[in-house]
Automatic annotation (TrEMBL), chain A:
Belongs to the complex I subunit 2 family. Its EC number is 7.1.1.-. GO terms for cellular component: endomembrane system; plasma membrane. It comes from Mucilaginibacter gossypii. It is a multi-pass membrane protein. NDH-1 is composed of 14 different subunits. Subunits NuoA, H, J, K, L, M, N constitute the membrane sector of the complex. It comes from the Bacteria. Residues 141-428 form the NADH:quinone oxidoreductase/Mrp antiporter transmembrane domain. Its main location: membrane. This is NADH-quinone oxidoreductase subunit N. It is found in: Cell membrane; Endomembrane system; Membrane. Keywords: Cell membrane, Membrane, NAD, Quinone, Translocase, Transmembrane, Transmembrane helix, Transport.
UniProtKB/TrEMBL annotation, chain B:
NDH-1 is composed of 14 different subunits. Subunits NuoA, H, J, K, L, M, N constitute the membrane sector of the complex. One of its GO terms (cellular component) is NADH dehydrogenase complex. The chain crosses the membrane at residues 7-23, 29-49, 61-85. One of its GO terms (molecular function) is NADH dehydrogenase (quinone) (non-electrogenic) activity. This is NADH-quinone oxidoreductase subunit K. It comes from Mucilaginibacter gossypii. NCBIfam families: PRK05715.1-2. It catalyses: a quinone + NADH + 5 H(+)(in) = a quinol + NAD(+) + 4 H(+)(out). It is a multi-pass membrane protein. Belongs to the complex I subunit 4L family. Its EC number is 7.1.1.-.
UniProtKB/TrEMBL annotation, chain C:
NDH-1 shuttles electrons from NADH, via FMN and iron-sulfur (Fe-S) centers, to quinones in the respiratory chain. Couples the redox reaction to proton translocation (for every two electrons transferred, four hydrogen ions are translocated across the cytoplasmic membrane), and thus conserves the redox energy in a proton gradient. The keyword Transmembrane applies. Keywords: Cell membrane, Membrane, NAD, Quinone, Transmembrane, Transmembrane helix. This is NADH-quinone oxidoreductase subunit J. Belongs to the complex I subunit 6 family.
UniProtKB/TrEMBL annotation, chain D:
It is found in: Endomembrane system; Membrane. The chain crosses the membrane at residues 12-33, 40-63, 83-108, 120-140, 146-166, 178-199, 249-265, 286-303, 315-335, 342-364, 370-388, 417-436, 463-488, 509-534, 554-578, 683-701. GO terms for biological process: ATP synthesis coupled electron transport; electron transport coupled proton transport. It is a multi-pass membrane protein. The keyword RNA-binding does not apply. Coiled coil: none annotated. It comes from Mucilaginibacter gossypii. GO terms for molecular function: NADH dehydrogenase (ubiquinone) activity; NADH dehydrogenase activity. This is NADH dehydrogenase subunit L.
Length: 497, 101, 182, 702, 534
């Protein structure tokens, strides 16, 4: 204790000094408590209230996020004693996460199946707010402890959300698989962290990077690989992707939308926080992680896209496609430059938006005609033209065909990769790009399946179910409109990134 | 003198035992136990190394957090396992495979 | 010193032995109870590593919390589980487990390899810590140090984990709740 | 662009344009008329009449004068300016007049001949269109335009052959004709392109005119090079049009081969001649105009246009092929029973003569023969038309199931159709080349010059004039056979159907006037006041080559005499043979025979020594024609079809199969990736850990 | 308002009108579309008439020589270390585009007239139709690669649905095949495009640019960039510029299409409804040719020269292979589809020759084929609409049954097989002339290619005449008997209205090739000069 006495005041100053840079998270914590209390007080009938509170609160958080933009103008800030790093990309990731989360929170009650959950949805709001807090931490984490904590926070929230519809077998099954896989991955990761800590004597990533070169490179690489497993689990890249299809399919659709987007963005934020430290350290002699990530990217793209071709369940198909997208986004990561980062941000935002839209429409069709399999979509295109057209636009964006935001996203990623290639002439980047191009074509195979069934296949029964789920429809329309708009004027967002 | 390597080796053995459990046991709860074993292996490492980090207590604090997190994870996992049992009347992970290609 | 060493070996032996038994046992109940032993042995090892606070936490949370939880779960899931599993009783070595054994063995080989390669005791930072007296000695009390650290350096994780625990609580409660009840 | 145009030239040009355009106008008007409108015939006839007059004026002005050449920029492609214009020299003026002159009677004749057809105005639309194409072909000054009209001529012929498009044979025939012509067209196109690549111009005058480029270039040292020794002293501005690039010499041969191909296709030369007999499925009047007189002459005309391009060797090849064609077609004609087919083969044979003449350098004679042949062959076809028309009449009146064109059913029509008979005799004599007819003049010219040409050449080449000579006797034979079968003897149909009524006559004035007109034109006075010396013909005099030899050698005397005596003999033989058979019942027809006491003896000799081998030869040739040449064409067709099927198969299974295998590959990769997804979470974990570990180990080891 | 912009976006305006109109007035959609296309035609003709010729407005590689230019900054991003990204809305035309524009506008009108046959889901159909229309016009006008690509890809989706929703029995297969094929090409095109973009910088602003014209200037390539001619970079062991050229070429070759990348075409054409077949054959195939000229040749001139032999070879193979395949077909539409392959082979051959005659012939062939193939497909549609059968063997003697129709068919067939007087003749003849000239002028192609090309013309005659004989001549004999006989009425006024402009256009171009050559000549010469200068 006496050793620490001289440091305490400095530490406390640091903590207090950090608080201004931590406002969104503080608001989130507050929001969490408010929602929790509302939930506890009003019980099952509080869904609407919880929703309103959660959403308005999130808007407030978003506002705070935006305020942070001003804070980072003077450079990066390490806060809470090297626990978190607030920097430009983190802020943008946070803004995107909050924005998407806002949509997702709105979305929860719009899925009929989830809404019919007998135990109410208010707990879900509580859990998801906590999860968003975790995501925020993830985007900023720069310390092994905060990394681990953030990942666990998000993971546990995710387990709960997946298994949330405890009365249905599939949801529970998905939950079990998720929790077992996730817990095992995090155990492995923790072991890696412990080794990393042991080898460097520090939890601070910067400190680790500084000291790791003194260790045997093979050992250090192994520890890093184990840590990568934990991040990979969240990103669901090959070979940590096995849980994805089952879980996405089993989880309630809005939860799938949640899982497939925001944690992924946060995990990418984490990846770009962590990985470059090791790559650009001149003393690093272990495994070249840019090659590892490239290889993973290639394999992930292939595995995700090719397997998706054979799927018939819409959600499962989208799950595989999200694996493919992870692979593609890794291309932007391995460029390890600023352009790569901004293109990654853009790509992820656009992908997430489109994916949310796609899953919202999956909910929509599931609500009105109980369609889960793609065969059930047969002939719906002419009966529900607006939704179907939106679906097409969204899928086109996911494929990456002009004029949608997906295309511009792909273009920026490609150009980032290209410019990196121009400097390094790395064969891996080239093969990444080629694989990306090929898998884009392959992805068309399965993305087209939905329009194919919607429009091209004819069906006999002509009855039109009463249109409900206007909310989802409006959401889908807004999303597809945004996607097209961003496709034509990517400037409007990209110039900030 | 007990060296760090000794601790690490013990940890490694525990870790691998846990790993063996999670891939082979036909019971979700045993799988969970396996995970706990792996976690403990990691905690052991942390604690062992923490000995040389007197000022910051990094290892020990991390160990504490890990234990708490393990508890939370286990609680959640068990809740899910119970639910699974209600739906499937079994907790053998291999039997639960409605979701598959 | 030799006593400590002896103690270390004993504890290690108990921990590993009981873990192996838990791993190999087909009987869930036995598995759970022998896991108690492992955890206690580990707590002992923590003490040997001069982390008494961690050891206490280990005992309190793991043994008192987690295992009890597991037992509850086991009991809630009823006897059927047990029965189903007991039917599998049979040979000690099961062909189906061979891949798992191989995996574990491979991992062990790799980990041991890298541990030996890393040569943990000669790591620069360890030497530095010893040189700077940044080493916990059996005589020093670590608890107050941990307390201060938790309130300063690790304040953020400390606060965050409270949110996490609350959330886990809410979630777990939600899942375990019977349907239809608020 | 040779000389500056005078005011009068301007008038001539406009006359020419009018003469060419009038049929087009008629065609367009007719196209707009109702299908059955009877006005169509007169519109077309009027157009061609006026055209004829204008052509005559043009001819009078241009003949033996400086060639007239005028052109306008048509379009520019790259740096190449493509001009369209009119080139009037002796050759084109002659053809211009000839075509309109032949077309006029045919038009008149057609108004009657096609009177009852359902698509009367269409017929005249096509006919006028043909006239337009042909006339334009004749006056065109640029190779591109020439090619264009060359094809249009083929196209209108296609339309006319298939005029009765419900007849399968007609449709087959016109397809065949078009494709055969198309082969020739490709040859011509290639030639044009080669010439363009070599000379960078399409201008016929600049290429083949008096100071034409072609004259100064020739195969040399493996290059189609510029020959300095042929360099003109006053080389024109054409030389400065862009740098001269030279092609390898082989392209000169290919160009010539291409042109020959075009000639062979249009003028029905071996081996592309088989379309012509089939083309007889069209209306007879069409056959008369197109497939006897004009279109088929286009090949010869083309040769005339590009004459300077050919080297001596190439000309020899031409001669050989012309000779062979002439001979082969003549032998085939011997045994045909279809009236029009006989005439068709005879046309081929005569065209062979013209090509032969071109080959041996008898440029003038060739064109002379072209002109005379046009008249008498047209005449013969019109005669055939009358005969067929009347036979058709009989057939319909008596509901008989006969082929109205089969000469086996005819005979003794001399009485029924007196005028027809007379003009037919005139036509045949002209075809055989008996003195006092135009045919004598032109044909003898060819024969004599062929002999002259063979002087001092390889002995094998002597076969050419010999073959030509022999062919002329064969001609005499089959023509006589034809005439005898039709007009002499008894009406054989009566033998089988004794009760049929015969209400037939020469027909109305629309039939008579053209026949008479053409018959008159088939006699010598139109061409020469001297009925015996071909070189005195004005037409020949204007066209003869500069180095023409005057009557210096023996050929000039021997050949006409030899040919004619033997021809008469052959005619008699034919007469004897074919009339003789029926002599018993019709004694009045066989008085020549009765006069001869050893008639049987002669008959036997004829039969055994002459007739049988000759007939056999004819049959063989026909068989060869049908089976080998046509078979070749068919097998090419079959081959192309097989190739087509193969490519289709290829497309379906190999190219598409590749695509499908790609899809299968995608599926298999997908399946592989899916295999891991068996729903067992522990398996997932196991795979994950194992993969990570194995990769790590590999990475470290490698 | 810039005329080109107006031309491109008119369809969108009308599409908006259609979107807003209720379905109860669906009968008026076709008239609205017709109005839009007619308006476009009017504008395109105005552009054509106001198009200035002369060496000073040749275009090709001089930005200031393009006409009707509109250039607006669109996407401009500061990418920090990577420099600035510059994407402009940059449209403009030179001689090569202008004729294709007019042709496309006319084809669109005809396609609209052919759309009368569409009976179901009119709103969707005409919306997609107009979208496609916009994309097509955009492709021909775009001078910014990004913009070009955008329009290029934008064509895919409407076509997919147009084929897939209103097509024949195997429409799904055809639509997907088409989509995948084209996307395959264009995805890789995207990669090259990005590479080019990063290699080229605009000398005026210094930022990277997608400007096609700037890409043509070797001086604008950054030192050592992937596609810099001076840098001799390699990709996968092959010279980078060669790879770039090949990739772009494949992308466009799929559109053209050339053997062996053509198999989407017969399927797509056969299954597509008539208006879509018309657009496919009339306009879309031209985009491939146009792309090769504008982009492949423009950006990689030296590769185009060194690879000319292979280009020509592919062209020749396409000519012959397509013709042979056409000969083997018994589905009329399929036959015509394969004939398109054959005819488009000439385009490639002409382009490969890199002579003024060859390239002009190629452009002419594109324009000519635009009219003729549209006409042919329209004609097939006429029969198909009446009896829903296209098998050549099922018809006989249609000449008696439908005389006017037969007349149109004959015009179309003979024009297609290269009868003088029609546009195809001029095009093919000069393509071959250019090809033949090539060995002496620039030594790119061997002589025999011209010869083989002319054999293709012959084969063309064979299959067209065979069809004519089989289907239209002879005695009437129909598979469907009396029912068909009643159904097979002669062409209606509307059909005539659609057919006559095409026939007249083909004829006019045949008689006055200067209508096309006059406009393209300067550009072609500039292109040739550019190619020679390299």
């Amino acid at each position: 204790m006496h050793d620490l006495l001289p440091h305490i005041s400095a530490q406390l100053t640091n903590v207090f000094g950090s608080i201004p840079y931590f406002m969104p998270e503080i608001y989130l914590t507050g929001l969490f408590l408010v929602v929790l209390i509302t939930d506890l007080i009003f019980g099952r009938r509080s869904v609407k209230l919880c929703k309103i509170i959660a959403c308005t609160g999130l808007l407030l958080v978003l506002f705070k996020d935006l305020q942070q933009v001003a804070l980072i103008l003077d450079g990066d800030h390490v806060i809470f004693g090297s626990m978190l790093l607030l920097r430009r990309s983190a802020v943008f990731f946070k803004i995107i996460i909050d924005l998407l989360s806002f949509i997702l929170l709105l979305n929860f009650t719009w899925d009929d199946k989830l809404k019919a959950h007998p135990k109410g949805l208010s707990d879900l709001y509580t859990i998801s707010i906590a999860s968003i807090l975790g995501l925020h931490l993830m985007a900023m984490a720069i310390n092994l402890l905060s990394v681990y904590l953030a990942i666990e926070m998000v993971s546990i929230a995710s387990y709960l959300m997946v298994a949330y519809r405890s009365e249905t077998a599939l949801s529970t099954e998905a939950g079990l698989k998720y929790v077992l896989f996730g817990a095992a991955s995090s155990a492995v990761m923790l072991y890696g962290i412990s080794l990393l800590y042991g080898f460097s004597g520090s939890l601070d990533l910067l400190g680790i990077v500084a000291r790791l070169p003194n260790v045997n490179p093979v050992s250090a690489s192994f520890a890093l690989v184990l840590v990568l497993i934990g991040i990979g689990f969240k990103l669901s890249f090959m070979p940590m992707h096995f849980w994805v299809p089952d879980v996405y399919q089993g989880a309630p659709t809005p939860v799938t939308a949640y899982l497939s987007t925001v944690p992924k963005i946060a995990a990418f934020a984490l990846l770009v926080n962590v990985m470059p430290l090791f790559l650009f350290s001149a003393d690093w002699k272990g495994i070249d992680f840019s090659i590892v990530l490239s290889a993973i990217g290639i394999v992930t793209m292939i595995a995700g896209n090719f397997a998706a071709v054979l799927q018939s369940n819409v959600k499962r198909m989208l799950a595989y496609s999200s694996i493919g997208h992870t692979g593609f986004a890794l291309m932007a990561v391995v460029t390890f430059n600023l352009q790569g980062l901004s293109s990654l941000t853009y790509y992820l935002a656009v992908y997430a938006l489109a994916n949310i839209g796609a899953l919202a429409l999956a909910s929509y069709f599931s609500n009105i005609v109980d369609a889960e399999e793609v065969e059930a979509y047969k002939g719906l295109g002419l009966k529900y033209p607006v939704a179907s057209v939106c679906f097409v636009i969204i899928l086109i964006s996911l494929t990456g065909i002009p004029v949608t935001a997906g295309f511009t996203g792909k273009l920026f990623v490609f150009s980032a990769a290209y410019s990196a290639y121009e400097q390094t002439h790395s064969i891996w980047l080239l093969s990444l790009m080629i694989t990306g191009a090929i898998t884009t074509v392959v992805s068309l195979f399965y993305y087209l399946k939905i329009p194919l069934y919607l429009f091209l296949k004819r069906t006999e029964n002509a009855e039109v179910a009463s249109e409900r789920s206007y909310n989802l429809l409006v959401l889908a329309i807004i999303i597809s409109f945004l996607l097209v708009l961003l496709g034509i004027f990517p400037n409007s967002i990209l110039k900030y990134l | 003198m007990i060296t760090l390597t000794d601790f690490l080796l013990v940890g490694a053995l525990l870790f691998c035992t846990g790993m063996y459990m999670i891939v082979s046991k036909r019971n979700s709860i045993q799988v969970l136990i396996g995970i706990e074993l792996m976690l403990n292996a990691a905690i052991l490492n942390l604690v062992a190394f923490g000995k040389y980090d007197k000022l910051n207590n990094g290892g020990q604090v991390f160990a504490l957090f890990a234990i708490v997190l393990a508890a939370a994870t286990t609680a959640v996992a068990l809740a899910i396992v119970l639910n699974v049992y209600r739906r499937y009347k079994t907790i053998d992970p291999d039997e639960i495979k409605n979701l598959r290609d | 010193m030799t006593l400590v060493r002896l103690l270390f070996y004993t504890m290690s032996f108990i921990a590993i032995g009981s873990a192996l038994y838990a791993a190999l046992s087909k009987n869930l109940v036995r598995s759970i109870f022998i896991f108690f032993v492992t955890l206690f042995a580990l707590a002992g090892l923590y003490v040997i590593a001069l982390a008494d606070f961690v050891a206490v936490t280990q005992v309190v949370i793991y043994v008192g919390g987690i295992l009890v939880l597991i037992l509850f779960a086991f009991m809630l899931s009823g006897r059927e589980t047990l029965n189903v599993i007991e039917q599998h009783k049979g040979k000690f070595i099961n062909m189906a487990k061979v891949p798992a054994v191989i995996l574990a063995a491979l991992f062990l080989a790799v980990i041991v390899n890298i541990i030996l390669k890393a040569d943990a005791d000669k790591l620069p930072w360890v030497k530095q810590a010893i040189a700077q007296k940044n080493e916990i000695t059996p005589t020093s009390s670590t608890i107050d140090n941990i307390g201060v650290n938790l309130m300063t350096t690790y304040l953020l994780p400390f606060e965050a984990i409270s949110v996490l625990l609350l959330m886990a609580l809410v979630g777990a409660a939600h899942l375990s709740r019977k349907e239809g009840r608020a | 662009m040779g000389t500056a145009l005078l005011h009068t030239d301007q008038t001539i040009i406009s006359y020419t344009i009018a003469a060419v355009a009038l049929p087009l106008a008629a065609s367009i008007i007719n196209f707009c008329l109702p299908v059955k409108s009877k006005a169509a015939g007169w519109i077309s006839t009027l157009a061609i009449l006026v055209g004829c007059v204008l052509s005559a004026i043009v001819f009078a002005r241009v003949w033996n004068q400086q060639p007239l050449h005028t052109q306008k920029l048509w379009f520019t492609i790259g740096n190449t300016k493509v001009f369209a214009g009119i080139l009037l020299n002796n050759l084109s003026a002659l053809l211009l007049l000839l075509v309109s002159l032949i077309a006029l009677p045919v038009h008149i004749y057609s108004t009657a001949y096609m009177k009852h057809d359902d698509r009367y105005s269409r017929y005249f639309t096509y006919l006028s269109f043909f006239c337009f194409s042909m006339l334009a072909l004749v006056v065109a000054d640029s190779m591109v335009l020439f090619y264009a009209f060359w094809e249009l001529v083929g196209f209108s012929s296609y339309l006319l052959i298939g005029f009765w498009f419900t007849k399968d044979k007609a449709v087959q025939a016109n397809k065949k004709a078009f494709i055969m012509n198309r082969i020739g067209d490709i040859g011509l196109l290639s030639a044009i392109i080669i010439i363009f690549a070599q000379f960078h111009t399409f201008d016929i005058d600049a290429l083949f005119g008096q100071h034409g480029l072609v004259k100064f270039m020739g195969p040399d040292n493996g290059q189609w090079a510029f020959a300095p020794d042929r360099m003109p002293s006053n080389y024109g501005s054409v030389w400065t049009r862009g740098a001269m690039t030279t092609l390898p010499a082989i392209w000169q041969y290919i160009a010539c081969a291409g042109i020959f191909l075009a000639v062979a296709a249009k003028s029905a030369q071996f081996p592309l001649h088989t379309w012509l007999p089939d083309a007889m499925e069209g209306p007879t009047s069409v056959s008369a105009l197109i497939h006897a007189a004009t279109m088929v002459a286009a090949g010869v005309f083309l040769l005339g246009r590009v004459y300077p391009l050919f080297t001596d060797t190439e000309l020899t090849v031409l001669a050989v092929i012309g000779c062979f064609t002439a001979f082969m077609a003549a032998t085939i004609a011997l045994t045909q029973n279809d009236l029009k087919r006989v005439l068709a083969y005879s046309t081929i044979s005569q065209l062979g003569y013209m090509i032969l003449a071109m080959g041996v350098g008898a440029y003038g004679s060739s064109l002379f023969h072209l002109a005379t042949h046009a008249f008498f062959k047209c005449l013969l076809f019109l005669v055939a038309g009358v005969v067929i028309h009347e036979m058709q009449h009989i057939k319909e009146e008596n509901n008989l199931d006969i082929d109205p064109q089969n000469i086996q059913y005819m005979g003794g029509l001399r009485k029924k159709l007196p005028l027809t008979f007379i003009v037919a005799i005139v036509g045949s004599l002209a075809l055989i080349g008996i003195p006092l007819t135009s045919g004598y003049l032109s044909k003898d010219g060819i024969l004599i010059q062929a002999f002259e040409w063979s002087e001092g050449r390889s002995a094998w080449l002597k076969l050419i004039p010999a073959g030509a000579l022999f062919t002329s006797w064969l001609t005499a034979f089959y023509v006589s056979r034809l005439i005898v079968k039709i007009f002499f003897g008894e009406f054989r149909l009566l033998k089988h159907h004794p009760d049929i009524k015969l209400h037939i006559s020469d027909g109305g004035w629309q039939y008579r006037v053209p026949l008479i007109l053409l018959a008159v034109c088939s006699l010598f006075p139109l061409f020469s006041l001297n009925p015996f010396f071909y070189e005195k013909a004005w037409l020949f005099e204007s066209l003869k080559p500069a180095e023409f030899m005057a009557r210096e050698n023996i050929y000039h005397t021997i050949i006409p005499i030899g040919v004619n005596i033997l021809s008469v003999f052959v005619m008699y033989a034919a007469y004897a043979i074919y009339v003789k058979r029926n002599t018993f019942s019709f004694p009045q027809t066989g008085f020549f025979y009765r006069l001869s006491y050893n008639q049987w003896y002669l008959d036997k000799i004829y039969k055994k020594v002459i007739v049988k081998p000759i007939l056999g030869l004819g049959k063989t040739c026909f068989w060869f024609d049908r089976n080998i040449i046509n078979g070749l064409i068919h097998s090419i067709e079959r081959l192309s079809r097989a190739v087509a099927d193969l490519t289709a198969w290829c497309d379906k299974y190999i190219v598409d199969g590749f695509l499908h295998s790609m899809a299968a590959l995608v599926q298999s990769i997908g399946n592989f990736a899916r295999k891991f997804q068996n729903g067992k979470v522990q398996y997932y974990l196991y795979s994950m850990l194992l993969i990570v570990l194995v990769l790590f180990i590999l990475k470290i080891l490698i | 308002m810039n005329l080109l912009t107006l031309l491109i976006f008119i369809p969108v305006l009308f599409a908006l009108v259609i979107v807003l109109l209720p379905s109860s007035v669906r009968g008026s959609f076709k008239y609205i579309t017709l109005l839009a296309t007619l308006l476009q035609l009017g504008i395109s003709i105005a552009i054509y008439l106001n198009f200035k010729t002369g060496a000073a407005t040749a275009g090709i590689n001089h930005e200031d020589q393009f006409q009707f230019v509109q250039k607006l900054p669109w996407i401009a991003l500061n990418l920090g270390s990577m420099g600035k990204m510059q994407i402009d809305y940059f449209v403009g035309i030179d001689g090569i585009s202008v004729t294709l524009l007019v042709m496309s506008a006319l084809v669109m009108v005809v396609a609209t007239l052919a759309s009368w046959e569409i009976k179901s889901n009119l709103k969707g159909f005409f919306l997609l139709f107009l979208l496609l229309d916009m994309a097509v016009m955009g492709v021909f006008c775009a001078l910014d690669f990004f913009l070009f690509y955008l329009f290029y890809e934008l064509m895919l989706l409407p076509l997919y649905f147009l084929i897939g929703m209103w097509g024949g029995v195997r429409r799904e297969y055809a639509a997907i095949k088409f989509f995948l094929y084209t996307l395959f090409g264009s995805v890789f095109m995207l990669l090259v495009m990005v590479g080019l973009y990063l290699s080229v910088s605009d000398p005026a602003t210094g930022s990277h640019t997608f400007n096609i014209i700037q890409m043509m200037n070797p001086a604008n390539y950054a030192q050592g960039s992937v596609f810099s001619a001076a840098a001799h970079q390699t990709i996968l062991g092959m010279p980078a510029r060669t790879v770039g050229f090949v990739v772009l070429f494949i992308a466009f070759a799929i559109k053209v299409p050339v053997v062996p990348l053509h198999t989407w075409l017969p399927d797509a054409h056969v299954e597509a409804p008539t208006p879509v077949s018309i657009i496919l054959a009339g306009v879309l195939l031209k985009i491939g040719g146009y792309g090769i000229i504008r982009i492949c040749l423009g950006i990689f001139p030296e590769i185009a020269s060194s690879g000319a032999f292979w280009l020509g070879l592919i062209g020749v193979v396409s000519i012959l292979y397509g013709a042979c395949n056409a000969l083997a077909q018994r589905d009329l539409k399929r036959m015509i589809a394969y004939s398109s392959v054959s005819h488009m082979g000439f385009v490639l051959l002409g382009i490969a020759s890199q002579t003024a005659e060859g390239v002009s012939g190629a452009v002419m062939q594109m324009v000519s084929h635009g009219f003729l193939s549209s006409m042919l497909f329209f004609l097939v549609g006429v029969v198909y609409n009446r009896v829903h059968d296209r098998d050549i063997y099922h018809f006989r003697g249609l000449g008696t049954q439908m005389p006017q129709y037969t007349a149109f068919v004959m015009v179309a067939f003979f024009a297609s097989l290269g009868l003088p007087g029609f546009s195809a003749f001029v095009a093919e003849a000069f393509t071959l002339a250019g090809t033949f000239k090539s060995p002496t002028v620039n030594g790119l192609l061997p002589y025999w290619m011209a010869v083989c090309g002319s054999v293709g013309i012959l084969l063309g005659a064979a299959y067209f005449l065979w069809t004519l004989q089989r289907m239209f001549f002879g005695k009437v004999s129909l598979k469907g008997g009396e029912v068909w006989k009643i159904a097979l009425t002669d062409v209606s006024i509307r059909e005539k209205l659609a057919l006559i402009p095409m026939a007249v256009a083909a004829l006019a171009l045949g008689l006055m090739p200067s209508l096309v050559f006059g406009k393209i000549n300067d550009s072609v010469l500039a292109l040739i000069q550019f190619l020679q200068a390299k």
